[in-house]
Amino acid sequence: MTLEFLITALVVVLVPGTGVVYTVAVGLGQGRLPSIAAAFGCTLGIVPAILASVLGLAALLHTSALVFQLLKYAGVAYLLYLAWLTLKDQGALSLDRDADRSTLGLTSVAWTGFLINILNPKLTVFFLAFLPQFIPANAVSPATDMLAMGGVFMAMTFTVFVVYGAFASLVGEHVLRSQTVLTWMRRTIAVTFAGFGLRLALADR
C-alpha cells in the first residue's frame, strides 16, 4: 500500500459529499453519539461498492445502462425524500436535540447513512476506477490488495466523518438555540440534499 494511495484516499474522504453532509446534519441536530452512528452507517454503505469492484460487478453496472439508471433514480428519490424529511424536521435528520437517542433511534440514523451510499451507483463505479490504479503490476493477489485498500479507505472515512460529526455537535450546541437559525439550517440542509439529488440525476456513467 503506497503513500500515494493513502494521500489520495484521504483527500477523497475529506471532500464533502452526501455522507459528510448527512453526518454533519445529524451532529448539528442530535449530538455526537448519533453523528457517530451516522458515520458508521455511511462507512458500512461503502462495503457493497468495494466488494462489487473486487468481484467485477461494478464493471457490469458500468456497462449496463438499465441497471445504472434504476439504481441512480432510486438514489435521487431517496435524496429528495431526505430533503423533504429535513424540511419537516422528521426522522434521522431532525434538528431536535431531544429526539430519540435510544438504540432504535441510533439504528435508524445508521440505516439512513447506509442507504445514502448504497443507492449511489457512482460510488461503485468510482471504486472500480480508483482502486486498480494503485495495484502493482507484479501483484500476487490483486483482489486481496483491493480489499486491503478498501478497508483502509473505510477506516479513513469513519475517522474523518466522526471528526466532522463531533465538530458539528459542538457547533450545534451553541447555534441551534434560535428558532430562526433552526429554520434556516433546515432549509440549507434540505437544499443541499436536493442539489445532490439533482447532480446525481444528471450524472452519466
Walk me through the structure.
The chain contains ten helices and no strands. With 205 residues, it is mostly helical. The protein has one domain. The chain is globular, with a radius of gyration of 18 Å. The chain starts with a helix and ends with a helix. The mean pLDDT is 80.
Helix and strand run:
HHHHHHHHHH
Class from secondary-structure proportions: mainly alpha
Alpha-carbon distance between the two ends: 28 Å
Task: Characterize the overall form.
Answer: globular
- Which bin fits the share of residues in helices? over 70%
Poorly predicted sequence stretches spanning 5 or more consecutive residues:
none
Number of domains: 1
**What's the alpha carbon Rg, rounded to whole Å?**
18 Å
- What share of the residues does DSSP label as strand, in percent? under 5%
Averaged pLDDT: 80
Number of strand elements: 0
**What is the tally of helical segments?**
10
Q: How would a textbook summarize the main sheet?
A: none
Please specify the SSE layout and strand pairing.
Elements: H1 3-14, H2 18-30, H3 32-44, H4 47-55, H5 57-63, H6 65-88, H7 103-118, H8 121-130, H9 142-175, H10 179-201
